[in-house]
Amino acid sequence: MHVLVLGAGVIGVAASWYLREAGCEVTVIEAREGPGLETSFANGGHLSAASGPWAAPDVPGKLIRWIGREDAPLLLRLRWDTALFRWGARFLANCAPARYAANTEAIGALCRLSAAETMALRDRLGISDETNRAGVLTIYATEKDLAGAEAKRARLGEAGIAAEVVDRAGIIRIEPALEQAAPRYVGGLFAAETETSDCHLFTAALAAHAADAGVAFRYGARVAAVTVAAGRASGVTLESGETVSADAVVLAAGSWSPVLARGLALRVPVYPGKGYSVTVPIAGRNGAPRMAVVDEHAKLYIARFADRLRVAGTLELAGWDKTPSPARQAATLAKMRALFPDGGDYTQAAHWTGLRPMTPDGRPLLGPTTVPGLWLDTGHGPLGWTMACGSGRLLAEMVTGRRPSIDPAPYALSRF
Length: 416
Known about the structure:
The protein has about 425 residues and is α/β, with parallel strands linked by helices. Helices cover about 30% and strands about 25% of the residues. The chain has helices spanning about 10-20, 60-65, 80-95, 95-125, 145, 150-160, 170-175, 200-210, 255-260, 325-340, 385-400; strands spanning about 1-5, 25-30, 75, 135-140, 165, 185-190, 215-220, 225-230, 230-240, 245, 250, 270-280, 290-295, 300-305, 310-315, 350-360, 365-370, 375-380. Strands 3, 4, 5, 6, 12, 13, 14, 15 and 16 form a 9-stranded mixed beta sheet that branches. It has a 6-stranded mixed beta sheet with strand order 7-2-1-11-18-17. Helix 1 (about 10-20) packs parallel to helix 8 (about 200-210), helix 1 (about 10-20) packs parallel to helix 11 (about 385-400) and helix 4 (about 95-125) crosses helix 11. The radius of gyration is 21 Å and the shape is globular. The model has no long low-confidence stretch (mean pLDDT about 95).
């Protein structure tokens, strides 16, 4: 079976690896000049084994309070956009407590599978991606937020990860670099057995291994349309006019997946969520944290790589425009400085903006579509790095008719 994978971010590269390992002939088509140069390039780096969806019961109220705040964790830029209206209505519906619980359970199952797959694959192939296994400390600014830490601790326990809830003094004990910031927080949750690593480094290394295993990568090739013959997806037509034939096509193009599906009259409920990150060199600073830190209230994710400190987070719903907001860039950098005043050389800050492919319920879209031969591996939102390898394995199992590692039903397009 010859499978075309559209997209060479961490999702597409992981899918190509597992498809090749399952015996398929695989070609990856990517518009950029190399792997992992879009959403996978400078994300937060957290492998989150116990994450939940953005659509949570408290979000509708927060959205109202955040209106007009350029530094809000979730910013909606109001404009006439029917795709956003449809997506937004479904997002708000998924904020209901029962749906939130179901979505959290489904996301957790895939995250647990994927985190294990990622670690095993990294160790098996000897991939060097600046892994930091010092743990993750989530800090909470309010007692209400801290009250939710117990539920997250339980989810981590389901993943086999021990975690402890700590008070303000515990924050400083676990991460002394937070001593100046700690008075603004009431407590935290520390998971010692979790890790962070550089998604782009992993993606580039895995792409090289996949190429060695026989996967063909075509960079700088833009897909104009998915082609259909005899009622089945039969390949793609490139903007150059070239046609590439295949037995199956996998849409792993992130936020651009629904654009490609539209030509087949197929509605894929994915909308881009603009995310921001800032990376600074540590440059010998003594105030850099030794571990990863999450500010739950501000939705900021800090990761320490070998000699770099990165903060990523926030969500801006503004369509497919990647133009960064200078105010949001400045706010993201300011929040990292407030947490770690001597954490790095902030005069050398490197800003980055990328589009996360968001589904209304936070679950990715994995599996077949109503077009035979066309498969989805998209919609992972901010959890693409965490979910990539598990999604790739699950997709390869479905494409080749093997028994799935976990129940794929919660991730099917038919749920919408």
